[in-house]
Amino acid sequence: xxxxxxxxxxxxxxxxxxxxxxxxxxxxxxxxxxxxxxxxxxxxxxxxxxxxxxxxxxxxxxxxxxxxxxxxxxxxxxxxxxxxxxxxxxxxxxxxxxxxxxxxxxxxxxxxxxxxxxxxxxxxxxxxxxxxxxxxxxxxxxxxxxxxxxxxxxxxxxxxxxxxxxxxxxxxxxxxxxxxxxxxxxxxxxxxxxxxxxxxxxxxxxxxxxxxxxxxxxxxxxxxxxxxxxxxxxxxxxxxxxxxxxxxxxxxxxxxxxxxxxxxxxxxxxxxxxxxxxxxxxxxxxxxxxxxxxxxxxxxxxxxxxxxxxxxxxxxxxxxxxxxxxxxxxxxxxxxxxxxxxxxxxxxxxxxxx
Length: 354
Ligand SMILES: Cc1ncc(C[n+]2csc(CCOP(=O)(O)OP(=O)(O)O)c2C)c(N)n1
Ligand SMILES: [Mg+2]
Prior knowledge:
Elements: H1 25-35, H2 38-60, H3 76-83, E1 91-93, H4 100-105, H5 109-116, E2 140-142, H6 151-164, E3 170-175, H7 182-193, E4 198-204, E5 207-208, E6 211-212, E7 233-237, H8 241-256, E8 262-267, H9 289-296, H10 300-311, H11 316-339
Parallel strand pairs: 1-2, 1-3, 3-4, 4-8, 7-8
Antiparallel strand pairs: 5-6
Helix pairs in contact: 1-8, 2-3, 2-10, 2-11, 3-8, 5-11, 6-7
The chain binds thiamine diphosphate and magnesium ion (MG).
Residues 175-177, 205, 207-208 line the site of magnesium ion.
């Protein structure tokens, strides 16, 4: 088992703190930069901003969208760092926090927003909504409201690649809460036994709903569980997009080479509440403002932009121009969704397996 963080830097058991992950940043920046050219670095920034601005807008208009939605604001670094370690023809599975993953994988904003509106022009023709969307054309195999349910699907995608003789890899996103569900154990075990090309990426944002990970896990770190499945377990600072890219690139390379799965745990944080409803929902006091502020002080987008300012790869004017262009993309996505029709009732029985 490999830990990027040393024993001392990982913090005491049962303490979820960003202190533990701070050490990683400097070295990871250097190593990952060596592999990334400037256009890729700027694309990383673009994709992180796309997730942030898309989810901010979706959250702002949540009352107009059917059902609830779960945003990924604060988690953009781990999503983009992981997705950009993939090839376009690789696969990806997600969960209920469901917009960032497809955006990271390259899904267009307009059909994604239309899906949230339930419109016929959506990626699933309006039948998936926020939580159950997929876009096979980009390798996004699905998002799902049933916690842990897509982990076996990721294993199946890995098995499919093996049987078809391709060198495709499947990246499997799941939360710290899902790590306590049966499908986590079954999926890691089977992927390890068959040495399948799957990268398990735990987005450890510290909480499942209102419950801290420390209260529900016997071990302090999800990555520690890799030992039980005889696969590498790697912890990484999820707020550092380059660190995540480096860790997941190594895991993807290993999977593609036929050496089997890896468990990567990205320590991250969600800024907003678990989910967004149209109406006010009573939230118990389960975390402090000081904790939220400490994570916001290490915002993945701001940290990466500052890094690019330092290296001379980006100016503040360029960052502003990128931000405005993406804001425009989001505006156009909302207009596209608003102007699109709802699915025809005759389409109700299409796309179903009966
Ligand atoms: C099988 C199952 N059990 C419980 C739930 C209720 N539920 C929805 S989201 C959630 C928390 C998931 O936490 P985590 O996996 O850490 O993801 P996060 O929301 O933190 O991104 C729970 C318990 C569910 N949807 N499915
Ligand atoms: Mg969580």
